[in-house]
Specification:
Oligomer: single chain
Pfam families: MarR_2
Number of helices: 7
Structural class: mainly alpha
Number of strands: 2
Protein name: MarR family winged helix-turn-helix transcriptional regulator
Strand content: 5-15%
GO molecular function, one term: DNA-binding transcription factor activity
Shape: globular
Strand order of the largest sheet: 1-2
InterPro entries: HTH_MarR-typ, MarR/SlyA-like, WH-like_DNA-bd_sf, WH_DNA-bd_sf
Radius of gyration: 19 Å
Distance between the termini: 39 Å
Organism: Streptomyces sp. R21
Length: about 160
Amino acid sequence: MNDTAEPLPPDELGDRVSEVFDLIGALYRRGLRKLEQGEQAEGVSVGVRSVLVLLRRYGAMTVPQMGRIMALTRQFVQRMVNDAVAGGWAEITPNPAHQRSSLIRITSEGETVIDTILAREHALNRQVGGDLTDAELRACTRVLKEMLRTFDHVDVD
């Protein structure tokens, strides 16, 4: 194992990145299971939660815009939007910039439910151990962004 600050040679980099992907997969699956344990309280699926987070963070958006950000198909995002609308957490409004692609907005009920969900997630995330430092989390974020950038060209539709 190379414990220096030097960039890794390609073969070693490939092995280490594979290790990170394996960990991300396990973390994602376990995290979803844990989040879905609280689903009954809010009635919001993980997919709808993602839509509400985007709308809360960026304001009104179109389904194609959300799909690009989440790297998910428009069809899947549309189903999640439909569920959010049916729950009263989002609404569909005309888009002055594009007649065929409506804007999706979060409702006040949606803001309340996503606040509840995010507070629960924050409480869970506070329990992460390991005495992690800001520098370690910045490095982790940098690595994950580089890994994600590798797949920027992948079309999700």
